[in-house]
Amino acid sequence: MPIVTAMIELIKGGGVTSPKGFTAGATHAGIKTAGEGTADLGLLVSDVPATVAGVFTSNKVVSPSVVVTRQRVAGGQARAVVANSGCANCCVGGQGLRDAEEMAALAAGHIGVVAEEVLVCSTGMIGVELPMALVRQNLGNIQLGDESGTDFAGAILTTDTRQKEIAVSLEVSGTKIRIGGTAKGAGMIHPNMATMLAFVATDARVEKLFLDRALHEAVDVSFNMIDIDGDQSTNDTALVFANGKAGGDAITVGSAGADVFQEGLTYVCTALAKELVKDAEGAQRLIEVEVVGAQTVDDARCAAREIASSLLVKAMVHGRDPNWGRLMMALGKSGIEFDESRVDIFINDIHIAHEGIAIPYLKDAVISAMSVPEVRFRVSVDAGAAVATAWGCDLTEEYVTLNSAYST
Amino acid sequence: MPIVTAMIELIKGGGVTSPKGFTAGATHAGIKTAGEGTADLGLLVSDVPATVAGVFTSNKVVSPSVVVTRQRVAGGQARAVVANSGCANCCVGGQGLRDAEEMAALAAGHIGVVAEEVLVCSTGMIGVELPMALVRQNLGNIQLGDESGTDFAGAILTTDTRQKEIAVSLEVSGTKIRIGGTAKGAGMIHPNMATMLAFVATDARVEKLFLDRALHEAVDVSFNMIDIDGDQSTNDTALVFANGKAGGDAITVGSAGADVFQEGLTYVCTALAKELVKDAEGAQRLIEVEVVGAQTVDDARCAAREIASSLLVKAMVHGRDPNWGRLMMALGKSGIEFDESRVDIFINDIHIAHEGIAIPYLKDAVISAMSVPEVRFRVSVDAGAAVATAWGCDLTEEYVTLNSAYST
Q1: Cα–Cα dist B4/B186, whole Å
Q2: A405/B188 CB distance under 8 A
Q3: Does the N-terminal or the C-terminal CB of chain A have fewer CB atoms within 10 Å?
C-alpha cells in the first residue's frame, strides 16, 4: 500500500458505480457452467462519453476481445464495457473477432449508443467459441442501476470465491471526486481460467494523456506486482473510465490535482490487486515482499517479484517455515546488483538474517509470527535507496488439486 | 534425447567409476540427518591428473564450495572431488570459504595429493555451517574402490529417492573410451535443498579448451533444459574429469573425434538430466516438450522451457487434462516470434490443435494417452527450422506437502 498523503476516504460498501454517472447490471446467459442462475454477462455504462485508458496482457496470444478493446481504447473515449465470464474467446480463429464485435454491438443496441463506443472483455476457457446464441438471447435482460456495481462485479468472476470491490472519495483541486473499481482474480479452479480483469470508474474529469500515464503508473505498482503462479493470461485487461461528472477542471499532466488523483487511482488498484492475491485459488496467506535499498527501482521491483513468485518461498509460507535461505536463493536468482554480505532479512519485523548470515532466533517465535494471514518479508540489500513491494500467495495442496482436475 | 549417430553402447550397471582409472568411495559423517548410517560424504578420484571442466550456478548467491571449485577448475587439472550432502555451506559468511578449503585439504591428505588438486561440492541446507568436526573425524574412513561409484552416487543424494548413474562406451578415432556419470536431483523434500550436482568421468584424453566447450554444449541441451520448480540453487555444479587412461590422441576442438565425443557426453548428460526430472519430488510423470519450427534455436529453447515450467501445464499433466489452451498461453508468454494461426499442437502424437484452433477429438482418448509415465507435447510454430526439447515434471499435491514442512 503506498503511503497515503492525500485524504482518501473509503466509501463504505462502494464499488464501480459509486462515482457519479455510472450504472451497471448483469444477467445469467448460461456461458459459465457453475451455479444455476449465476450471472456471467455484465455491463458497466457511463451516462456520458468517458475518457478511457487501458493496460493489456503482454502475452503474444491475445483474445480478439482484447484486440477490439485495445483499438477502441486508443480512440480515447467510450461509453460502456460488456464483459462475460466462462469463455475467454481465445484461440478460436477468425470467429473470435466477429463474436467480440457482435457482443459489443448487441450491448450498444441495448443501451442506445454506437457499437464503437462499447468495449468488450472475456474471461474463461481458452479454445472454445463464445456461445453467441446465448449472448443474443440474454444480453437484453441486463437491467442497469446505479447501485448494481456488485452485480457486475459478480458477473466477471470465474474461480474467485467473492466479489472484489472498492470505492474512495478524495478532493482534487477543490472538487470532490470518486474512484470505484472491481476486479476478478487469477484463481484457476476451473482449468484454463487465468484472466485478471479490472474495471475502474471515476467521475473526475481527466485528460486522456494523463489518464493513460496514471493508469500505467498505478498498474505498475499494483496489478503488475502480484503473482499467483507465474502464468499470464491471454485476456488480462485493466480499464479506467473517467466521465467528468464531478465537474471541476480537467486533470492533466502536471496539473495541480494530478498527484492527488494518481494517489487515489493507485490506492484503488493496489487494494484490488491485494484482494486478488488473497482470493487466489487455494491461497491461505498473503505474502508481502518489500525490497529496500536496491540500486534502482527496476532492481527493487525485479527482486521483490522474484521472491514473491518463488515456489519454494510460497511453499515455506504455507508451512510457516522460516527458511530464509530460500529468500537468499530467490534474491540471487533475480540477478540484481547486491553484495550477499550486506543483506538483512526480516520476517514480520523479526530480524532473522544480518549481513547475509543467520541471526540466532527462537524458531517457534518466528513460526508463530508466520501464523497470520499476511506474512511480510523485508529484504534490505543496502546497495542504494530504491524500494518496491510485491505480493504473492502461499502454494497449497489445494492449488494443485484445483488445477489438475479435468476441464470437463 | 539427441539423435544418436555414434555407436554409443550402454555399460550395464555402469556409473562414474566405469571409465578406466577412476575410483570412488563414501562414508557416513552425520551431516545429513536422514537415515542412520546413510552416506553423506563421498570422494571421486582419478589415478592420474585429469583435465577438468565445470559449469556452475548463475545465481548471484553462491556457496564458497562453488567459489573454490570454480577457481580450481579454471586451472584446468584436478585429481579428485569431495562432496557432501546435508549442508550447502552457503550464506555462512567467511567461515564457508575456510571450511570448503579445509574439506578439500582433508581429502587431499587422505588420498595423498596436494590440496589444490581437489575440488569440493556441497548440497543441503542453506544458512548453516558445515559441521567440520564430523568431516575431520570421518573423511579418513572413506575407502576407495573402482566399483564404488554407486556409494559415491548415494553420498550426494538429499531428497532424491534413488541413485542416478549411467555409463557408456564408444569409439573415438579408433580408441574405445568410456564416459560415466552420476547426478543428484532437484528434489526438495527436506526444505532448503535444491541443488543439482553432476559428476562425469571419462578415460578419454581431452584437451582443456575442447572439454570446456563440450561440457557447456552438453549442459545446454540437458541440465539447462530441465525444470522442477523454476528455482535455482546456490550450489548447482556439473563437472567432467577426463584422465586420458584410454589412450589415443588428445581430442581437441575440430579434431576427428570431437563430434563423436560430444555426442557421448551429451548422451550421458541428457540421460542424467531426465533421471533428475523423473525423481523430482512428488513427480509422477515426465513432461517432454519439443518445440519445432522456431525462427531461432534460442526461440525454440525459450518456448520449450516456458511450456515445461508453467505451473498450469504441470498441473494439467498431473490431472491428465488435455487443456492445450495452457500450452498456447505459455507459448505466448515466452515472447518468441510466431503467428498464433500457424501453431499445431500434439499430445503424445495425437494432433489436438491445428493452425491455432482446436481439432475435435475424443477427450477420453487423449486422457488415456496422457495416462503414461512420459507425456510428450510437440508444439510446431511454423516460423523457421529450429528445434529444442525441454523436460519437466508434473506438479503434485505431494510436492507442496514436502516443501511446506518445517525445516526442523
Answers
A1: 27
A2: no
A3: C
